[in-house]
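User: Predict the complex with iron/sulfur cluster.
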Amino acid sequence: MGYTTSLLKNNGFEAVLKDAIALEWSLQETLEYIKAFNPQYIICEPTWVSVRDDKLLLDAIGNNIKKIAVGNYATNYPYDCLRDTGVDYVAVGEYEFSLLEFFRNNGRKLPENFVYSSKKDYKMPPLVSNLDLFPFPERDDTPIKFYNEPSCYGKNVVMVSSRGCRFQCSFCNIERVYGKHIYRKRSAENVVDEMVYLKNKYKFDEIYFDDDNMVSDKSHIEGICREIIKRGLKIKWLCMGDGFVTDETLELLAKAGCVSYKYGLEHLDDEVLKAIPKPIPSERRLGIIKKCKELGLRSYVNLIVGLPKSSWEKDLKMIKDVINEDPDFIQIAIATPYPGTRFYQEAKEKGWLISEDPTYFDATGRSAISYPDYSAPKIEEMFYLGWKLWYRHIREKPMKLKFYFMSEMKRNGLPSTIKKTMAYFLKSL
Ligand code: SF4
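Assistant: Here is the predicted structure with iron/sulfur cluster placed in the model:
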C-alpha cells in the first residue's frame, strides 16, 4: 500500500494512505475521514480473517465511491471477495503498476488482472523484476511510531529490500500473492539510499527489514552489508531471515550494524521439518541463537505448535529446548492452514480441518485443525503452556526485562510500560 501510494503520487495523482487500525480509528472516525477527503476510489486490502468487519466499513462508505480490493485474500478468492465485501473490482497479484495503469486510463480500460463479478477470465500480472523501479514507500500518512517490531529497541521504521523467498514451506502464503516462489531484490545501492533518506528524515532507533526472507539470496544480503560498510553508515538495523543462514553471513551482518536476527525455525524435530518441508540443517536450528549471542546480536525465533507429524511431546520438547538456549525473543503460533496454501489442501484432504470459520485462522489461540493423535484442544493448550514457560523464563532474566522495559518506555512512555509489564507478569502465572 505504501509503494502504491508513492507510485500514484509520483505520477501526479492525489492519493493518501490511512491505516485505520494503527490509528485506532473507530468505524465512525474512518467514515468521517473518507467523507472529508471525498475520494473517487478506495483501494483496500480485506483479509480472510477480517472480511466481515471489512464489509461493514465498505457498505457504510456507500456506492458513490468505487472500491478496489487487493492482497492475498483478494488474489486467491477474487469472486468470493467481490461477493463478500461488495467491492467493484479485485486487482489480483502484484498490483502496484496495474493500479497506476488503471488510473492513467481514468478507469476506462481495465488491466488484465482486474476482476469483476461478470468477468470470468483474468490474468495474473507479470512480477516486477526490477524492484528499484518502485519509489520509496509513503510513510508520512502513516506515522512510523505505529509500526513497532517487538524485537526492535525503541522506535523503529520498517523497510523491505526484497520480495519472495527461494523456499516452499507448505503453510506459507507468499507464493499465493506473487503466483510463484521467485526471489526478487532491490539493488544494494537503492536499499542503502533509502536507509540514508530515512535517517535524514525521521527520528528512530532502528530499521526493521520486514522482507519475506531477507537472507534468501546470500549475494543480496551480503551486498547490502558491504554497501553499508563502504559508506560508513552508522544505523542500527535488524531483519527477518531464515534458519539456513551461515555463520559468515551473520558475522557480516554484525559488522554492518545489524543488531538482531529474526528467523522462522518453526520446529526442531526432523520429521516435522520434513513434513512442512523446511529442511533446516540440524546444527543451524539452535546454532543461530548461539552465534547471535557470540556476535552480540539479539535473536528472535518463530515457533509453530500443531504442525503435521508433531505431537504434544514433540512440541513441548521443542519449546523447552529453544528456551534453554535463551534467545531474546520467541514467537509461538498455532499451525494455521490458510486457504490457498498447500497446507490447507492437505488438511482438507486428510480431514484435519475442523472449521472454516475465519476466527479460527489468526494463529493466536484457536486451532483450525485437529489430528487423530493430537487434538485441537491439546494444540491450544500447548500454545498457552509454551507462552507461559517463556514468560516464566524471562521473569528470571533481569537484563531482558530491562531491555523490554526501556524499549517500551522509549516508544510509548510510562503508563504503557507499566501496563505491559503487568501483562507479562500475569501471563507467567
Ligand atoms: S522460509 Fe519463510 S518466507 Fe520462505 S517459504 Fe518458508 S515460511 Fe515462506
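The pocket of iron/sulfur cluster is lined by residues 165, 167-169, 172, 174, 212-213, 242, 264, 278 (CB under 6 Å).
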